[in-house]
Structures are given as structure tokens and as C-alpha cells.
Amino acid sequence: MGRYVIRRLLQMIPVFIGSTFLIFFMVYALGDPVAAMFGDRAPDPATAARIRQELLLDQPLWKQYLHYMGQIFRGDFGTAFNGQPVTELMGTAFPVTLRLTLVAIVIEIVVGITLGVLSGLRRGRALDTSVLVFTLVVVSVPTFVSGYVLQFLLGVKWEWVKPTVSTDAYLNELLLPGVVLALVSLAYVTRLTRTTLAENARADYVRTAVAKGLPRRRVVTRHLLRNSLIPVVTFIGTDIGQLMGGAIVTERIFNIHGVGFQLYQGILRQNSPTVVGFVTVLVLVFLFANLVVDLLYAVLDPRIRYA
Amino acid sequence: MPDKTTVTPSSVAGAGPGQTGSGVDVSAPSVAAASELASMGGVNKPRSLGQDAWRELRARPMFWTAGILLVVLILMAAFPFLFTGADPGHADLRNHYLGDPQWTHLFQEDWFGYNKQGQSVWARTVYGARASVIIGICVTFAVTVLGGFLGMIAGYFGGWWDALLSRLTDIFFGIPLLLGALVLLQAFTHRTVWTVVLGLTVFGWMQIARVMRGAVITQKQADFVTAARALGAGNGRILLKHILPNAIGPVIVVATIALAGYISTEATLSYLGIGLQPPAISWGVDIASAKDVLRDAPHVLLVPSTFLSLTVLAFILLGDAVRDALDPKLR
Questions:
Q1: Domain, as residue range, for B100
Q2: For chain B, N or C: smaller number of CB within 10 Å?
């Protein structure tokens, strides 16, 4: 196990370097951060040259990248163009998004797996059909549509919840945004659970369990569910990274000042240090989430052993 | 869109068990498939993958629902003037600012009311279909070609090629589609449909590449490949004539399902202001400008949203149907 973890960690290094360099390239080589600083007006050439030199932007790209990476390992993510250190922005943004993601994941797990199990055990019945239709509808409606519609209905028209989230982003305020963020993945979790459950229900070990006279409840929870949830866990694990990056739309709709909000502002204003810094952290989160999922595999499925 | 699925059959076709004289053949899997078919349908004449898929598809109400939706949608994208005589760009602030829908005026200019600029919501919705359809289909095509090519190289040649291309896939996988497309597209000040296609393709090919690689690795060890090589076929011929027709099934499935996602992502990009730009007419652009008047005139947001969702739904249904038809194991 230990050797496997080390090997995986080593494999992560080139991927990490590649992904961050890709982002670095797109932001610094394709875009023009200095021109962006001046907005719509053309910068004074002398000033622009001075800023370029200060920010090392006159160096070749690989040198800039090495310099940037060197700073990151000292905990310095640079300074956003408004003078605020990027780490400070991260300090306020990541806890908010983390909470939002947690709410979304919990909803995904509880509602998604429940619906999936219910419909998987009753394949072909009315409940199964309605759950299937529900997942199809949910998957078809893009997040920004469902977000605005739910915000309008629940927040503005019926006034059940507050339509926007305050700067502190308390958990109860994050409930509706959490639902919106979770919706699409929730539908996938439901369908995945349903399919694997229905597949495994025909397996030999289930027949054996039924044949030895175990109560249905025990067959389902101990034998069927435990084996069926393995792909679901994989999906949820990889979804964590996706959700944190994908919160751009949700955070914009509900005015949540999290990672997605900062990233979007950074991209709009071509605030290069913010964009590169945040994406770097997101890539790390994504890579580690994948590693944890692979390790969880061995816990859930004793047949898998990592040497 | 049945032609999407029948693209393969012509290349897979023929090669039944009796036809071995022509030297190289694709019969090995076809024999297996044929015997399966025979036991399933009670038909003795072997059918190709495409014919089999088409039979499966025809029997599904889901496929026909998706098909009808898609025909309407494609007509709308190709000939918008068939659906509305109104000009989507014509704005009349004086009379029509946020005019309410007139539900009885079917297909008229004021059927779904007017937006903030006094433009007909129905006309804009009809004309907005084109961007979504073009982007969805072009990205899927580009992604299939690029991802399919890289996956084929990685799977077939293995070794260094595989190691290199697999790491490249991992690198692009580390950046979510929406995020990567956002960062890439912000570098372009003037964005057209083709820039958006480029942005989505650059960060969309990885899944196809992985699926193709897996399929090619499985097929590579089949007897018919060894036979073809023994008969002196080169790498190019083996790949294109023998492995590709047998490996393309799962790729088509993944591509069809992904199509819906690309349409949704394009709308999201346009909504965020980093996809298509006004005066381009697109559902995403219209929804973005409608959100500010949601309280007073929800119809301006709901009409394009409904059409967008129906489009995504149609492609998802098609994807599901194609998957069930092409990949019996996933059923």
C-alpha cells in the first residue's frame, strides 16, 4: 500500500507540472496581462515596458513559469493586480466554496443514492419510471437555468429562502445553492446507483444470500449495496474537484464570494496571478481526490490489493 | 439523426462467416455477433453492427421522441424563416418593451412576448438554435477525430507513445472543461462560433481518447489482426480497416452522450459572457441578458431556457438510445 501511494504521488508530479504549465501558457502567452491592466485604453509604452520588467513578463515563458513555481513552494502565490496577495483571496474564498461543495456532496449522496436504491430495487414500476424521468429532466436543464428558476421561485416569489448569500456564507444560506450545484451530479449518482444495483441483483452471491434465508433487508444492505456502491464512490470522489471548479455558475447566481466568484472575476479582468493561483490549487485538489478514490477502492473491495 | 449511427455499418458491413476467400477479414467478431443475434432474434442471416443497432433503435419510443425533437431543431437551425417571419434583430422599444406573451398567437411575432430591447422572444429563440446546433455537432466531430486519433496511436503502438499520450490526457483531464474553455477563450477578444468550437475541443477530447485507447488495446490482440498482419497488411491498413471498425462502437456512444454536454457548456460560456458575444444570437446570450428582468418578465428567460433544455434532453435521449443499441452490456 505504501509503495503504491508513493508511486502514485510520483506519477502526479508530471501531471501537475503539465496542467499548471498549460494554464500558465494560456494566461500569460495567449492573453496579455499588462494590456488588461489598462482596460480599454492603450497603455503608455514606457509604463507598459516598466511593468513588464517588474513582473518578469519580458523573460521567456519557461523562466517565468520556473520563477512562479519557485515562489509557490515558498507559499507565495503573487499579488493580484489590485494589490491584494492571492493567498489572502484564497483564504477567504476556499472556506466558502468548501462549505458549498460539502453541502452539495451531502445532498448528492443522500438524495442520489436513496433515489437510485429505491428505483433500482423496483425496476420497471411507476416509482422507477418517475425517478428516471426526473433524472432526465434534471440533467437536461443547465445549471444556470435551474439556478435562476429556483432562486426566483423559492427566493423571490414564495420567499422560503434568502435569494442571495451574505459574505459570511452560513450553512443554512448555502442550502439552495448547494441543491443547485448538486442537481446534475445528483442525477448521475441516481442513475449509476440504479444501474449497478440492478446489475448486481442478478449476481450469484445475492442468490446465495437469499437462498440461505437472510432477510431481504440484510441482503440489500450488506451484500447488494456494499458491492454496488463502489462505482458510485468513484464518481463522487472525482466529482469533488469538478464541483469546486464548476461552482463558477452557482456562485455567480447566488452572489457567493467563493473560488468560482474569484476565478470568474480574475478571468474577466485578466487578473493573471489570481487565475493561475486558483487553478493551480484546484488541480491539486482534483489530483488528490482521484488518489483518495483509488485508495478507497481497496477498502471497499477486498479483492483489490495494492502492492 | 439515424445517419450518425449508420456511419459505421458500411465499414463494418458484409464479412459474414461464409466470406473468407478475400484474404483479410473482419469476420471474427461478426461471427460471434451473428451467433448472438441468431439466438436473440431468431434470424439466421448475420447482420452488421449498424444494421443491428438500427433494428434496436427503431423499436424504442425514446429514440423516436428524440428523433422528432431533433428534426424540428435541425429544421429550425437550417431554415429559421420557416418558423417565424419576424426579424430577430428588429427592436421596437416604444411599443414592445417587455411585452407579455400572447399564447394564442401561435408562431406570431408576439407569441412569447418581447424582451428588454423590444425584440421578439420567439424570433430570437428560433434563430438562436443555429449556434447551439452548429457548436454541438462541430465540437463532437472535432473531439471524435482528435481524441480518436490520439487514442488509436496510444493503444496500438503502446510503449513510449502510450506513456506520452496517456500523460498528456491526464494533464488535460486535470482542468475541468468549463474552466479550461473559460481561460482559453478569454484570450480572444473577438469570439465567433469557431473560437468556441476550438475552446471546447481543446478541453474535450480526453474521454474519447481514453475510450478509444481501451477499445483498440482489446481489439489489437484479436485473431483477425494477427491474420491480417500475417497476410502482410501494414499498420495503417490494420488500424483503419480492421481495428477501427471494431473499436468505434463505444466511441460513438460516448460522443453522442457528450454532444448534449457541449451544447449545455456553450450556453453556459455565452451566459458567462465568455462564449458568443452579442450581436450573435444564441440562447446563452439571451438568457444572460434576461436574468436582470427575471422579476418583471420571467418569460424572456424561460422561453429560451426551455428550448435549450429540450435540445439537451433530445441529445441525451438519443445518446441513451444509441448506447443501448450499440452496447448491449450496458443495458
A1: 52-330
A2: C
Compare all CA atoms of chain B with the CA of A290 and give the residue at the minimum distance: B174
3-class DSSP assignment, residue B18: coil
Domain count, chain B: 1
Of B170, B171, B183, the CB nearest to A275: B183
Determine contact: B176 vs chain A, CB below 8 A.
yes
Q: Strand, helix or coil at A84?
A: coil
Give the residue from B179, B210, B315 with the most A CB atoms within 10 Å of its CB, the best one to mutate.
B179
Interface test with A, best of B183, B274, B293, B302 (most A CBs within 10 A): B183
Residue A250 has pLDDT above 70, yes or no: yes
Give the whole-angstrom CA distance, residue A231 versus residue B291.
Answer: 38
ipTM score of complex = 0.85
Q: Is residue A110 predicted with pLDDT exceeding 60?
A: yes
End-to-end CA distance of chain A, in Å? 6
B46 found inside a domain = no
pTM of the complete model:
0.82
Between helices B206-220 and B244-271, what is the axis angle to 10°? 170
B175 touches chain A (CB under 8 A): yes
CB contact under 8 A, B309 and A141: yes
B41 is a domain residue: no
